[in-house]
């Protein structure tokens, strides 16, 4: 069985091939049962979350991700997301690979947002605001830069030191990035806004968004969490990665639905509709688009297959 650690997984999942693999998987005959989502109490700390996410392509591959999310791990200088992906043959059930789940999750999440941006963001988008400075931030900036000609990046975080550190790390990767303390001004200046936080209250205000903005919401993965306010929902054309996931788990969708701010028929499409050509995505230059991602097991399967096949080819060579 192939075992891929964090560095191996990162090396095997370059952005363009990963985005293409996820695109293909959304159009494929992939079976994705409802994931198991469990709250795990941690005495004296914020509750943790355990996710079990299976998926398979009949006759090809099958796999499951076991993912633990511990919000207070930052106090211990440990990753918030820790997990493992188990990839098996869809023909024999033979275990083929064990892939680092944290790195797989971080990269497939960013790649999925970039795939959505290919349909929803301006073709000539040049500026991006990254809200949040955690593990996903650098991945999201790099992935979006793969599909759009981004030239400038701003990074905002509740902790200014973390925003500065993230911007410095982005510059080391060749991105023109600076930290900002003025979230409203940065949001009003951005062609793409990507949020990857654990916020329980709205950070982005709809009144800040200029015409043509694309809002990418990656965090707030529980119904009681939120990164955008009602004005964002009212002003935007709304898209999701999967209806089943977003309608159940994503607070930026669940809360407006409950309050009546959003009707289900205003969710124009899920990612499979965009990939399959059933919806054209952005329809005009001044349209504000909003994409809510909660993650789908088929994205993990696509990444795990790519990592396994890529590493196997290199090993043989």
Question: Describe it for me?
Answer:
With 317 residues, the protein is an alpha/beta fold. The protein has 2 domains: 2-104 and 298-316, 2-Layer Sandwich (ornithine cyclodeaminase, domain 1); 122-294, NAD(P)-binding Rossmann-like Domain (Rossmann fold), CATH 3.40.50.720. The protein is built from 11 helices and 14 strands. The protein has helices spanning 6-12, 15-26, 101-120, 135-147, 160-172, 183-188, 230-235, 243-249, 251-259, 271-275, 297-316, and strands at residues 2-4, 36-40, 48-57, 61-69, 81-89, 95-100, 127-131, 152-156, 177-179, 192-195, 214-217, 237-240, 267-270, 289-292. It has an 8-stranded parallel sheet. A hairpin with a 5-residue loop joins strand 5 (81-89) and strand 6. Helix 3 crosses helix 11. The longest helix has 20 residues, at 101-120. The model has no long low-confidence stretch (mean pLDDT 95). Its EC number is 4.3.1.12. One of its GO terms (cellular component) is cytoplasm. It holds the Pfam family OCD_Mu_crystall. Belongs to the ornithine cyclodeaminase/mu-crystallin family.
């Amino acid at each position: 069985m192939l075992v891929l650690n964090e560095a191996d997984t990162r090396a095997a999942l370059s952005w363009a091939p990963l985005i293409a693999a996820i695109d293909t998987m959304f159009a494929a005959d992939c079976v994705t049962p409802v994931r198991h989502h469990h709250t795990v109490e941690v005495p004296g700390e914020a509750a943790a979350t355990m996710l079990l996410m299976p998926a398979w392509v009949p006759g090809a591959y099958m796999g499951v991700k076991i993912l633990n999310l511990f919000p207070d791990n930052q106090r211990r200088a440990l990753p918030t997301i820790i997990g493992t992906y188990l990839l098996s043959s869809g023909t024999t059930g033979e275990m083929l690979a064990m892939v680092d789940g944290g790195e797989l999750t971080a990269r497939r999440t960013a790649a999925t947002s970039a795939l959505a941006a290919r349909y929803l963001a301006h073709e000539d988008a040049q500026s991006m605001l990254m809200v949040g400075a955690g593990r996903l931030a650098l991945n999201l900036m790099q992935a979006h830069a793969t599909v759009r000609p981004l030239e400038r990046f701003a990074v905002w975080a509740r902790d200014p030191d973390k925003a500065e550190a993230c911007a410095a790390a982005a510059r080391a990767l060749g991105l023109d990035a600076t930290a900002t303390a003025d979230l409203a001004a940065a949001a009003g200046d951005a062609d793409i806004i990507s949020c990857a936080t654990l916020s329980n209250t709205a950070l982005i205000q709809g009144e800040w968004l200029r015409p043509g903005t694309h809002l990418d919401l990656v965090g707030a993965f529980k119904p009681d969490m939120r990164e955008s306010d009602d004005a964002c929902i009212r002003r935007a054309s709304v898209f999701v990665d999967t209806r089943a996931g977003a309608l159940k788990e994503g607070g930026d969708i669940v809360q407006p639905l409950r309050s009546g701010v959003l009707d289900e028929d205003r969710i124009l499409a899920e990612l499979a509709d965009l990939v399959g050509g059933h919806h054209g995505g952005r329809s005009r230059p001044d349209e504000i688009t909003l994409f809510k991602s909660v993650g789908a097991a088929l994205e993990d399967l696509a990444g795990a297959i790519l990592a396994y096949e890529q590493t196997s080819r290199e090993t043989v060579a």
